[in-house]
Write a structure and sequence with these properties.
Helix 6 links the parallel strand 3 and strand 4. The chain is an alpha/beta fold. The chain is built from twelve helices and 13 strands. It has a seven-stranded mixed sheet, with helices on both faces.
């Protein structure tokens, strides 16, 4: 079994160790929930202060031009593009994820007018399921949404399939899907592919161009650390620019917004998918958070992420054999950056851990979820978190009657 001293030695040699200082963290706590809400970075603090005090405070309305606010959704998209393997001009930062999925689904259904089926995963995130059903209905031409067991996708890829929408990393189990293979299969059936990167961006290296992805979208508040309710991003492959229509047009996606024309004419490129005024302070928060990623590579992040999740799984299994079912795949190729442990008292276990300074979360019905974020987590944090988990399990602290009633956010 790996010892605490061995973990400290791993931290000494960790090439990412210096980046921890870029985050605002409480050293008395171990934060294993960066897969849900990333912590504040010093870059975010600096950039938000600058936006509020200087650009807004002093520049006022002039900052739409002088500080480049009007172009910020595209400029930030270009900064994010390398993290998903996209090119400049293919990523837009705007809205929140469900809204961006709506825009892409609505537009994509128009590109296959002779096809009537949309396929998604029966265990997809519920917001994805709601919005795909709503957009299919709004299309008004009898589109059926098939929610399937994703392992049977091949059986469903008939010539009536217009669009396949999958989440690249399962939010409960942390299983990562084979993006390139699935996209190729979907294309072979003549359908379009939309990936939800909520649990992928900033967690694993992504290559949308290599995988020939049509469309993707992800959120800014998880591994990207952009803050609660941070703007999301969308990717539209250049081949679809000028072809994929924005079904929710607004003035700032118009070719000439300040001509105030009564009829809509779409702007070119990714600007076409802008609807409303950008949330400038929130964009500043996300922009500041991206600085830390620019000091490393996603390959380095990935290597440490796998080492941290390997260590956590090994320590849990050695110290608590049989207590949990590890539902996250062991196979590195299928594992993202979280570990999910199944237990019938999962909610109480997570609450007892939080009271002891180990912050994870719970996903119904029985999953304790722990995110491993290599930019600020240390190997010794993994060791100490497992020590506290062992205490919670051996004392049955999770059975405390206070945990019988669940909080609104679990
Ligand atoms: C996989 C997935 N899709 C969609 C969403 C919804 O994101 P938003 O609240 O930005 O619409 C989430 C939120 O956690 C998510 O995990």
């Amino acid at each position: 079994m790996t010892t605490r001293n061995e973990c400290l030695a791993l931290d000494e040699r960790d090439p990412l160790a210096a980046l921890r200082a870029e985050f605002v963290l409480n050293d008395a706590e171990i934060y294993l929930d960066g897969n849900s809400l990333g912590p504040v970075t010093r870059g975010t603090q600096r950039r938000v202060r600058e936006v509020v005090d200087r650009e807004w405070g002093e520049g006022l309305v002039r900052s739409w031009n002088a500080a480049g606010w009007i172009d910020a959704p595209l400029a930030l998209g270009d900064r994010l593009a390398p993290m998903i393997g996209a090119r400049d001009g293919e990523v837009l930062v705007a809205d929140t994820l469900t809204f961006l999925l709506a825009k892409i689904i609505g537009g994509a259904l128009e590109l296959r007018p002779e096809r009537h089926v949309v396929i998604t995963d029966e265990v997809n995130f519920h917001s994805d399921l709601y919005i795909v059903a709503a957009m299919a209905q709004l299309a008004g031409r009898g589109i059926i949404v098939k929610t399937i067991d994703r392992s049977t996708l091949g059986d469903h890829l008939g010539d009536d399939v217009a669009l396949v929408m999958l989440t690249h990393v399962d939010f409960r189990t942390g299983e990562m899907l084979d993006m390139a293979q699935i996209t190729a299969d979907v294309h072979a059936a003549g359908a379009l592919m939309l990936w939800d990167f909520a649990h992928s961006t900033g967690a694993v290296p992504l290559d949308v161009i290599g995988a020939d992805v049509d469309f993707a979208a992800g959120c800014g508040y998880k591994y990207l650390n952009g803050g609660p309710g941070a703007p999301a991003f969308m990717y539209v492959a250049a081949r679809w620019h000028g072809v994929l229509r924005n079904p929710l047009p607004g003035w700032l996606g118009h070719a000439r917004p300040f001509d105030f024309e009564p009829l809509y004419e779409s702007a070119a490129g990714m600007r076409a998918y802008v609807t409303s005024s950008p949330s400038v302070i929130a964009l500043g928060a996300l922009e500041g958070a991206l600085e830390v990623f620019e000091r490393t590579t996603m390959a380095a992040v990935r290597a440490k992420s796998l080492a941290l999740t390997d260590l956590f799984i090994a320590l849990v299994e050695e110290a608590l054999p049989g207590d949990f079912e590890v539902v996250t795949p062991r196979d590195h190729v299928r594992r993202a950056s979280q570990v999910a442990l199944r237990h019938e008292h999962g909610y109480g276990i997570v609450q007892a851990l939080i009271e002891r300074g180990v912050i994870g979360d719970f996903r119904a019905p029985d999953i304790c979820r722990f995110g491993f974020t290599p930019l600020y987590l240390r190997y010794v944090d993994v060791y100490d978190a497992v020590t506290i988990l062992v205490d919670v399990m051996t004392t049955s602290a999770y059975l405390d009657e206070r945990y019988a009633v669940r909080l609104a956010v679990t």
